[in-house]
Design a protein that fits this description.
Blueprint: E1 2-6, H1 10-21, E2 27-31, H2 34-40, E3 48-52, H3 60-67, E4 78-82, H4 87-96, E5 100-103, H5 108-161, H6 166-186, H7 190-199, H8 212-215, H9 223-230, H10 232-241, H11 246-257, H12 278-293, H13 304-313, H14 321-329, H15 331-345, H16 347-350
Parallel strand pairs: 1-2, 1-3, 3-4, 4-5
Helix pairs in contact: 6-7, 6-12, 6-14, 6-15, 7-11, 10-11, 11-12, 12-13
């Protein structure tokens, strides 16, 4: 246990140091001026501080006020040594954060008793702090384990949704990466960006409820078939929205809103503007980008440049203008994701 001693009288400082040395497991950390103490901050290590009240430039209370400006010292016990016995001095010290007092001349037996009590208090605080830190780590571990299980559930559901169509699995993975890039450029916090990365691939989970004759059709949809296909947003929202998981709730929100349009002409609820959840507005751009740049049985893949121009032109009509602005700042990231995935899927073509 390190005990900080501050006294401008060297005789008193030596006397206090010898008293500390008599305490089992205690080490004196002596300073002869408040300025030296402040210059040693914040590297100085101590567990208890004993400060003389009457010192030049800084008295003991003023020194204490300066020391506890550092976060690491705010819970340290401070003892003020003074010849003053008036109530005003003691109240000032208590209000500043002092925990105890010693009167000059210091009585060795009283000093030993006070220090032993404070050592016990400091050890108890340290044990509580260690226990609190252990509990914090355990909670973080439990939350991380829960998030990992949620992530695995989403991965399994995504695989199930794309079982009939392997391209759907690749599409959902890219949409997640594109959505995360837009979310970061938009300025969302790290946790939400990561959650969007995990939840966005679930945007088409509702397609499990669409008849195969419609889902796997190679040509253009009839009006009735298109109406059936639109139901995948509602089905996905219903599948995911029953879960208490915040991550699956986010996925449900995305599934139900990623086909809404900024101008209100989307589906399923014809929401418009800020009434559309922001994650849905982000995924709408990512989904559209990937759909246009990917070859389908009924169309050729658009070029990267044509797709970027298409999305930019629809800011304020189909897409949220702010989300489009964020998208335009990360087109290099989109190009990298496209290239990486094409190299993985068709290595001979890239070579």
């Amino acid at each position: 246990m390190r005990i900080l001693l501050v006294d401008d009288n060297n005789t008193n400082l030596l006397f206090l140091s010898k008293l500390v040395e008599k305490l089992d497991g205690c080490q004196a950390v002596p300073f002869s001026s408040p300025q030296e103490v402040l210059m040693a901050m914040p590297e100085l290590e101590f567990d208890i501080a004993v400060c003389d009240f009457q010192m030049p430039l800084y008295n003991g209370i003023e020194l204490m006020a300066e020391v506890i400006k550092f976060e690491k010292y705010r819970q340290k016990p401070f003892v003020v040594v003074t010849v003053d016995t008036d109530m005003q001095t003691r109240m000032t010290a208590l209000n500043a954060g002092a925990i105890d007092f010693l009167n000059k001349p210091v009585n060795p037996l009283e000093f030993e008793a006070r220090m032993r009590n404070l050592v016990a208090l400091s050890e108890a605080r340290a044990q509580l702090a260690n226990k609190a830190e252990w509990l914090r780590r355990e909670v973080e571990k439990a939350v991380a384990d829960l998030r990992e299980r949620e992530r695995e559930i989403i991965d399994r559901l995504t695989i199930a949704a794309s079982y009939k169509d392997p391209e759907t699995a690749r599409h959902t993975l890219r949409v997640g990466l594109y959505s995360e890039a837009i979310a970061r450029a938009y300025g969302l916090d790290e946790k939400l960006c990561h959650d969007i990365l995990l939840a966005a691939p679930m945007h088409d989970i509702g397609k499990v409820g669409i008849p195969d004759a419609v889902l796997l059709k190679k040509g253009k949809f009839t009006e009735e078939e298109f109406n059936q296909m639109q139901r995948h947003t509602l089905v996905g929202c219903e599948i995911l929205g029953q879960s208490p998981s915040s991550l699956l709730q986010l996925a449900a929100e995305i599934a139900g809103s990623h086909h809404e349009r900024w101008d209100g002409n989307g589906y399923p609820l014809r929401l418009s503007g800020d009434d559309i959840p922001l994650p849905g507005r982000i995924v709408a751009i990512a989904d559209n980008f990937d759909a246009l740049t990917t070859e389908r049985p009924y169309k050729e893949a658009w070029s990267f440049e044509r797709t970027v121009s298409h999305i930019a032109e629809r800011a304020g009509t189909q897409f949220d203008p702010q989300c489009v602005a964020a998208f335009l700042t990360v087109t290099d990231t989109f190009a990298s994701i496209m290239q990486e995935h094409r190299a993985r899927e068709c290595p001979q073509a890239v070579a």
